[in-house]
């Protein structure tokens, strides 16, 4: 018996030495990792942001954790974020390439790619979005057209309490579809419903323990475990988008694009090169990136905004008063009206701040050895920009832990945007769709607040503002009380 225990102890010691994680010289400090598992068993995946805050209080604004045997550096606070993502933008603009999300997209798209593919496709996206009216009246008309459908739905349900979760997803999905395909889909359309459902299913897996297990224990990746559902759903989404692309190839008129898809097909035809990064597989990955990014973050921000507007009737009332005064007899709001609505602008930005929809950004990686805040960080190190630490940094906000539009107003009541406002990240990896999202949020919120009053249902209990943590955060499900304004 004693001999068996000694052999077991020796075996465990050998395994410990074999898998022991050695922190590089002058690497940022952090908690001691456990062999094989790293620090993941020491973190609460349901309340990870709180654990990250505690680690920052103990180790500083720059610290390290281990995801399995993979070292990661967590960045906290506006000063560190500016130094890494802006001052050293090129060095911190890489992406890790061996996580579940990378294997899902199969090296396509624009969000997770690196090198020439990323640069070419980001440049193409920015130019094409601008050409299709981003920031112009033509884009406003597309957004306002989609808003008319949600207005009609709310009018039919005036005096009731509705569940807004899927409704806002459908609106955001259709707006990005207008950009990508030049068309919208009925809310009952199979393409729309399928992709929203698959997005939801994958988000739940990515936000849960199975994604961590996949990233942490590569030996398990080919086993029939629940994370395989992510890849099955990914194939279904690619198939549905492939069908859309096939329809566009048949019906398009070269040089007369209806949306970004036609522009991409024109670009493929123009290049006509087998070695070009512009190809049909890359197009489908590109569309998948933009659809998810354009749907999930905007709809979740709207959900947070209406949750706070219902439970802060004074803020809602002040916005409505300002909207009424500025718009007067105008039939519809315009994005330019925002310049005359400082309080409403402040409310929308405050909703984005408290929504904190992408709290840990999309992970970055260093493209070469570098130094940050006195620490040495090797090439290829996974970087986690904790945007939540910036959006709630106590030294940067008047009311860091409350919903209060005053965070974006100066003493004269004018709208101001503090440098710590980074919901879209910063640097060359900054969100492609920032301009579209800003326009959507303004036009949707102003149009609906002008027409309706939103109230917390009498039987809904105490409001719970605690978000459901994940790659993208959302509020817990709630019901939206809708009343017509007189």
Give a written overview of the molecule.
One of its GO terms (molecular function) is heme binding. It is found in: Membrane. Heme binds at residue 431. Pfam families: p450. There is one protein chain. With 486 residues, the protein is an alpha+beta fold. Helix content is 50%, strand content 8%. It contains 16 helices and 11 strands. The protein has helices at 2-19, 48-59, 78-87, 100-105, 115-131, 137-156, 165-181, 190-206, 209-216, 228-251, 260-271, 280-311, 313-327, 342-355, 387-391, 434-451, and strands at residues 62-67, 70-75, 161-162, 364-365, 370-372, 375-377, 382-385, 452-455, 467-468, 474-475, 480-484. A hairpin with a 2-residue loop joins strand 5 and strand 6 (375-377). Helix 8 runs antiparallel to helix 10 (228-251) and helix 12 packs across helix 14 (342-355). The longest helix has 32 residues, at 280-311.
Main beta sheet: 4 strands, mixed
Query: How many domains is the backbone divided into?
Result: 2
Strand composition percent:
5-15%
CATH architectural arrangement of the largest domain: Orthogonal Bundle
Q: Any idea of the CATH class of the largest domain? A: Mainly Alpha
Strand order of the largest sheet: 1-2-7-4
SS elements, strand count: 11
Classify the fold: give the CATH topology of the largest domain.
Cytochrome p450
Mean pLDDT: 91
How many separate helices? 16
| Low-confidence region ranges | 1-19
Q: What oligomeric assembly is this protein in?
A: single chain
What structural class do you assign from the helix and strand content? alpha+beta
Percent in helix: 40-55%
CATH superfamily of the largest domain: Cytochrome P450
